[in-house]
Design goal:
The chain is mainly alpha-helical and 412 residues long. Helix content is 68%, strand content 1%.
């Protein structure tokens, strides 16, 4: 069945090329050839890791597919299984019918959303610059970002699904498509709770009237529609609707995350420190809102401000909260690419956020990866990543408060 997998990967590469062509980024011979070579490399990397398994796959994803295979595919949705929300389980239930290795199908799904994620990052950059080269770089930067292809191709995880919808939601809000924005945000939440790190930005959108109160009902409507197939299959409505409620995760302060608690050298279980972190994250959001209000009194919030605020939230909130895991800065990696390539004075946020996330990834890959890619444990630990994110937050705060004079006058 490998030939089917390869054909599907080729179809995705062709789709990615079509997206570039549609954006006008592959309209002449040189960019066409360059795009083909880069797409070949991007999907070649993914194929290289296609048969790699990790404990996450062996302990969770594969048994979940077997659950659906044993219980008749979609009819098995009526029986709760796993700790992922039901929309992702719809895909696993569908995979149980297909005579292709479920490992391949799980990764192919993430490959598809890798491309969609790259597309919406490129579209977001196009809001800020008409430079085709920077738009093209944004597209391929996402596909080649180590935390993106390691997450989907090696780890077999699905962060690109919720991230693609999250960036789509941001893009639609910026393009005055509030209904689509709310729908995309709801879909992001149906796949991963971590999109809540971006939620504070939408209160800013409400404040500046990019989204209005009449658009908010779209969010619960789409969320409810997304869970209805599982409810129809037999799962209790309220339990399914409130899936995330009461799922606080592990009680430790930090789980290989480059959060502020990486600096903690004491016990990993401390309720007092956890509460301080929660209060600090809340205080950060309030402080940002006060800054937005003061800026709005002087002049309108600029398009750049929204992107800076997005990155402040998706870096700062998980940085201060307790109980964070190694993949919780995925959105930070993505919005860093969007901001750094939209406004080159922020370019340094891309390697800094990537360093922080990669250190956390490396710890997992060292201890829990399959023997196909046994990595030595490097000398860095998560404190280095946490220090890098401190620099990012300071830089973003400074960039939000101060702008070059030319830019200030141009926006005025």
């Amino acid at each position: 069945m490998y030939w089917i997998t390869y054909m599907l990967v080729c179809a995705m590469a062709a789709w990615a090329f079509f997206l570039l062509y549609r954006q006008g980024l592959a309209a002449s011979l040189t960019p066409i050839l360059a795009s083909m070579v880069l797409l070949l490399a991007a999907f070649g990397i993914r194929l290289w890791f296609l048969d790699t398994t990790t404990l996450d796959y062996e302990w969770f994803l594969s048994p979940w597919v077997e659950h659906f295979r044993y219980h008749g595919g979609f009819t098995g949705l009526g029986i709760p299984v796993g700790n992922y929300n039901v929309p992702y389980l719809y895909f696993l239930a569908g995979f149980s019918y297909i005579p292709i290795p479920d490992l391949h199908l799980i990764k192919l799904l993430s490959f598809f959303f890798d491309v969609l994620l790259a597309y919406y990052v490129m579209k977001t950059v196009s809001i800020y610059t008409e430079n085709k080269n920077r738009q093209r770089i944004a597209f391929f930067a996402v596909l080649f970002l180590p935390t993106v292809f390691l997450n989907s191709a090696y780890w077999g995880q699905c962060e690109s699904i919720y991230a693609a919808f999250a960036v789509m939601s941001f893009y639609c809000a910026m393009k005055d498509k509030p209904i689509l924005s709310m729908a995309a945000l709801a879909l992001a939440l149906t796949f991963k709770l971590q999109v809540v790190f971006l939620f504070p930005l939408f209160l800013v959108f409400l404040f500046t009237k990019k989204i209005r109160l009449r658009h908010l009902p779209v969010f619960p409507a789409v969320y409810i529609l997304s869970i209805l197939p599982a409810v129809i299959a037999g799962q209790p409505f309220w339990d399914t609707l409130l899936f995330y409620i009461g799922r606080g995760g592990n009680p430790g302060l930090n789980y290989n995350s480059p959060s502020v608690f990486a600096f903690n050298r004491g016990p990993n279980y401390n309720d007092t420190l956890a509460m301080i972190g929660i209060i600090a994250a809340f205080a950060l959001v309030v402080l940002v809102y006060l800054s937005v209000f003061l800026r709005h009194k002087r002049r309108a919030i600029s398009n750049e401000d929204y992107l800076v605020l997005a990155l402040i939230f998706v870096v700062g909130v998980p940085f201060l909260l307790p109980h964070m895991h190694d993949r919780y800065f995925y959105l930070a990696d993505i919005f860093a690419v969007a901001l750094g390539l939209s406004h080159l004075r922020f370019l340094a946020v891309i390697p800094l956020t990537q360093l922080a996330s990669l250190i956390s990834y490396h710890i997992y890959l060292h201890w829990f990866a399959a023997p196909q890619l046994s990595l030595p444990l490097i000398g860095f630990d998560t404190r280095v990543g946490a220090a890098a994110l401190c620099v990012v937050l300071v830089g973003l705060a400074a960039g939000f408060v101060w702008k070059p004079k030319g830019q200030e006058s141009a926006e005025g």
